[in-house]
Amino acid sequence: MKRPAALVLAAVLLLAVVFGLRRCGGENAQTFQTAVVARGPITQAVSATGTLNPVVNVQVGSQVSGNIQKLFVDFNSPVKAGEIVAQIDPVVFQANVTQAEGDVASAKAALELARVSEGRIESLVAKQSSAQADLDQARASLHQAEANVQIKQGALDKVRADLEHATIRSPVDGVIISRSVDVGQTVAASLQAPVLFTIANDLTNMQIDANVAEADIGSVAIDQAVDFTVDAFPNHTFHGKVTQVRNAPINVQNVVSYDTVIGVSNPELKLKPGMTANVSIVAAHDENVLKISNAALRFRMADEKPAPARTGALPGGGKPGAGRSGGGNDAGGGSGRPQGENRATRTVYVLASGANEPKPTQIKTGISDGVFTEVLEGLQEGDRVVTAALTGEKAKAPSGNPFSGGGRRGF
Predict the structure, then answer these.
(1) Are the C-beta atoms of 330 and 290 separated by less than 8 Å?
(2) Are residues 186 and 65 in contact, defined by beta-carbon separation less than 8 angstroms?
(3) 344: DSSP letter
(4) Which among 264, 266, 227, 222 has a CA at the least distance from the CA of 244?
(5) Rounded CA gap, 288 and 331, in Å?
(6) What is the pLDDT of residues 126-181, one digit of tens each?
(7) N or C: which end of the chain has fewer CB within 10 A?
(8) What gap in Å lies between CA 301 and CA 359, rounded to an integer?
(9) E-assigned strands of 266-336?
(10) Which one-letter DSSP state was computed for residue 331?
């Protein structure tokens, strides 16, 4: 009876060893997650934030000091060029005009007297009844009187201008978007002109002043399409166009950016001055390109170190960085591709049908939207590229740099 029991025990141990070996082999068996190379649209965009502003934004001030006597407009009031918007108390200015008019009248009276005196002495000198020195003195007095009239007239013109400036008028057609004074408030214009109103010339046409980082400014050009959203309408996408890329750098804490002006149509007046816009400038777009997932660019085999991206020559002896238009060959029709962009040479792993191990393949990439990247050379539609390695039921994280294949920022 002992022999059969020993045989049963040996059989159980043998089955346990076989099962353990199979289990270990199953856990160590490696499979690959793949993605199919396919065609489709791709858009490369530059992301930035900016502020909505009126195209013409006029700050209306005062050249004279005094108390605000009347206000004729308020916030959101439409105004026309030349329309009175405020009145500073004119009493002091009117008194200065009256005084200056009296000074002018007095100077003119003195001038008349000087002319009469000069004529009388001239006749006496002709009769040799007066000395020549007396005539010279009379003529000098006459010239002084003429100059004094001009001085007094200038003073009169100045106080009349001050009286006119006590009436504040709108310099442009537009809408009052800011009012900084109230009736009875004293305006002091001794050092600088105080701002009383801010007038937006036309709120149906606005602009976004977006700060684009120096790393992205090379992809931005005039007339590029722009999509943007504002927090007030998060589910609505507005559209605009780049109208100006300013050369003046903006340096904030050693971060350099450039003001990019984007023209925006606002017929429904939904957009208001000062709103923050989340901007996506369409730097390049193609409707029908060969593209792969960026995860395939990041994937590396477990025993391989990530290789840095490098640029290579284009087919036909072209120089690296020679841009091409969106149409032609396999790229399909497209528009807005940046000129002079570099083509990066990358390594991906292609898993052929029925194969157990992927094969490394060199490809050249084009534009990227952050999720997919255009393939210019090296792959064909329908190829399967490895995006991750799986062991058993547990997925291994890709071993490459997650930022190595993303291209430029996109949306």
Answers:
(1) yes
(2) yes
(3) E
(4) 222
(5) 6
(6) 888 888 888 899 899 999 999 999 999 999 999 999 999 999 999 999 999 999 99
(7) N
(8) 10
(9) 276-293, 310-311, 334-335
(10) S
Which residues, including other chains, have CB under 8 Å from residue 407's CB and lie 6 or more apart? 44, 294, 365, 367, 368, 369, 370, 373
Q: Angle at Cα 264 formed by Cα 262 and Cα 268, nearest 5°?
A: 160
Count of C-beta atoms within a 10 Å radius of residue 243? 16
Q: Which amino acid is it at 102?
A: G
Residue 283: closest CA among 12, 116, 70, 42: 42
Can you read off the two tokens belonging to residue 174? 């537009």
- What's the N-to-C CA distance of the chain in angstroms? 77
- Identify the pLDDT of residue 405: 40
Please give the distance of CA 85 from its chain centroid, rounded to a whole number.
33
Instruction: Give the position of tokens 């429904």.
Output: 268
**Integer Cα distance of 255 and 316 in angstroms:** 40
- Helix crossing, 132-165 with 91-126: angle to 10°? 160
Which three-class secondary structure state does DSSP give residue 332?
A: coil
pLDDT tens for 27-48 read 455 688 999 999 999 999 999 9
Contacts of 309 by beta carbon, 8 Å cutoff, 6+ apart: 344, 345, 346, 404, 405
d(CA 115, CA 101): 21
What the block records as the tokens of 88 is 């500073």
Could you count the other beta carbons within 10 Å of the beta carbon of residue 351?
18
Measure the CA dihedral 250/254/257/258, to 10°: 30
